[in-house]
Amino acid sequence: MPFERDDGTPLEAIALAQRPAAADRFELREAIVYVDPLTGRRYRAPAAGEAPLPHGVTDLASVPSPLWGLIASYGRQSAPAILHDERSRVAAELGDRRAALAQRREDDRVFHTGLREQGVPRLRARLMWAWVSADREREFGGVLGWVLLGQVGAGVLLAVAAVVLAVVAGPWWLLLALVPLAAALAWGRLAPLVLVLTFSLAGFGPLLLLQLAALVAFRAVEAVVELVSGGDPASVVRPTIAVPRPGAVPRPGEEDPRG
């Protein structure tokens, strides 16, 4: 088993505690260790309290809450996500953008390796890797990072246009999709990242829009119910439990949010 406890025994459980003051954050109560099978390097995510916060604190997989129906924030990806959160903080604390970028590129590769070793399906693991890598290029890639993301956006539009035009005007328009494919190759070792981001967004974009549309409709109904019942309509957008307001008293039959 690739993930371990400090004493080298297999990681059979992840000890987490939800932080009341920020309900989408969890404290790691026991350190976890990962040994990269490709390099043999030992990575460690410390428990909260071993180092100054926010070390030892995680939001698990940083999937936006509207997309949890497609990729959950926890599951087989939990241990790799916790380790990746820690490695991202370490990179950010280097104070050198180029050094942080180089470290994050390796850490993101380790994240993908860990996902696969935990049994995360290939496509899901690749998509998760692509999104953390995109965030890395945005944060540490400087101008080139933004150029990369801009090219991805343009490539998505071209790929979608190729499909629409093929349906309307003939299949030869599908050749238009070769433009973002060729353009991605110019990025060298980053070409796989550009390709995955471009064609996954183009292919799954309609599913994401449907997911968001369904969620917006549901949240709107929730907000109306809260408004009519004298509740807090703004609370429906929170992904997890909310911090109780001072002096809040549960209504009869409602569970006390403080437990």
List keywords for this structure.
259 residues; mainly alpha; 2 domains; three-stranded antiparallel sheet; 6 strands; 50% helix; 7% strand; globular; disordered C terminus
Description:
This protein has two domains: 1-140, no CATH class; 141-241, no CATH class. The chain is 50% helix and 7% strand. The protein is built from six helices and six strands, in the order E-E-E-E-E-E-H-H-H-H-H-H. The strands form two sheets. The chain has a three-stranded antiparallel β-sheet with strand order 1-4-5, covered by helices on one side. It has a three-stranded antiparallel β-sheet with strand order 2-3-6, covered by helices on one side. Strand 4 and strand 5 (42-45) form a beta hairpin. Helix 4 (142-169) packs antiparallel against helix 5.
Provide the fold topology.
Elements: E1 3-4, E2 16-18, E3 26-28, E4 32-35, E5 42-45, E6 57-58, H1 78-92, H2 97-117, H3 122-140, H4 142-169, H5 178-185, H6 191-228
Antiparallel strand pairs: 1-4, 2-3, 3-6, 4-5
